[in-house]
């Protein structure tokens, strides 16, 4: 995994377009193989005594059999180009060959490098568990379009459009994007998980407790088969 210039994720107190604003990653960072996050402690929207209570409200997004022999957690950002590439070139085959066949229980955990990644996560979660992965598909597949739609207002509008394509209503989307308590809970949840699993970049995979960086489907399939045989 190529390392990036560290990206400071600093929260502001303003709310715009219905969600919190963040510093954006640099273009040089986006050009690398993965995105890194080593300034988790700089996100200060919630106090430490609030964090646990807030994060307990966040629903884990899970796909696959509960009793699958392998549990895989993917840490990904909706604004990470390499996460979109992983989704297109690895996840689809992973789902067909391992998740849908009962071999892998898959958990998706959001990472927030910037305001737009948080907004996208709030849209994806707006439809609940039953629609989350479908909306995630749409967001990852169209990432290069909505994330470059223009200024923050244009990007927020593009995200709402994606939500509407998934069957969400405008009022529902607006309520989700303006939910400050949910934004705080998501950030607290992200902080706790990323710190506990020592996440330094995306995409990162935790496979039966072992951490792995971005890889091809061939590499991942080989790794999973070895674990299944072992």
Task: Provide key terms for this protein.
two-stranded antiparallel ribbon; 10 helices; 230 residues; Glutaredoxin; 9 strands; 49% helix; Thioredoxin-like_sf; single chain; alpha+beta; five-stranded mixed β-sheet; isomerase
Structural class: alpha+beta
Domain module tally: 1
What is the spatial order of strands in the main beta sheet?
4-6-5-8-9
Give the termini separation: 26 Å
Number of extended strands: 9
Q: What CATH architecture do you see?
A: 3-Layer(aba) Sandwich
Order of helices and strands: EEHEHEEHEHHHHHHEEEH
Number of helices: 10
Please tell me the overall pLDDT: 82
CATH C-level category = Alpha Beta
Structural shape = globular
Low-confidence stretches: 1-48
CATH superfamily: Glutaredoxin
What fraction of the residues are assigned to beta strands by DSSP?
15-25%
- Which oligomeric state applies? single chain
Which topology does CATH recognise? Glutaredoxin
- Percentage of residues assigned to helices: 40-55%
Biggest beta-sheet profile: 5 strands, mixed
User: Rg from C-alpha positions?
Assistant: 17 Å
Structure write-up:
With 230 residues, the protein is of the alpha+beta class. It has one domain: Glutaredoxin (3-Layer(aba) Sandwich), CATH 3.40.30. The chain has a five-stranded mixed β-sheet with strand order 4-6-5-8-9, sandwiched between helices. Strand 5, helix 3 and strand 6 form a beta-alpha-beta unit. The longest helix is centred in the middle third of the chain and has 19 residues. The two termini are 26 Å apart.
């Amino acid at each position: 995994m190529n390392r990036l210039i560290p990206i400071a994720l600093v929260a502001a107190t303003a709310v715009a377009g219905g969600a919190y604003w963040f510093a954006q990653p640099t273009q040089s960072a986006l050009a690398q193989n993965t995105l890194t996050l080593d300034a988790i402690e700089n996100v200060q929207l919630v106090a430490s005594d609030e964090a646990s209570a807030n994060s307990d409200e966040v629903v884990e997004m899970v796909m696959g059999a509960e009793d699958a022999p392998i549990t895989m957690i993917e840490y990904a950002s909706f604004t990470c180009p390499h996460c979109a590439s992983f989704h297109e070139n690895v996840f689809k085959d992973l789902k067909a060959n391992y998740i849908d066949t009962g071999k892998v229980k898959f958990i998706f955990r959001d990472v927030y490098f910037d305001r737009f990644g948080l907004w996208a996560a709030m849209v994806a979660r707006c439809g609940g568990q039953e629609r989350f992965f479908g909306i995630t598909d749409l967001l990852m597949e169209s990432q290069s379009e909505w994330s470059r739609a223009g200024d923050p207002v244009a990007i927020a509008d593009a995200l709402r459009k994606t939500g509407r394509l998934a069957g969400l209503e405008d009022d529902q989307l607006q309520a989700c994007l303006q939910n400050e308590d949910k934004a705080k809970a998501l950030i607290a949840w992200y902080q706790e998980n990323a710190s506990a699993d020592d996440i330094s970049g995306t995409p990162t995979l935790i496979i039966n407790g072992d951490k792995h960086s971005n890889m091809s489907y061939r590499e991942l399939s080989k790794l999973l088969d070895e674990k299944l045989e072992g």
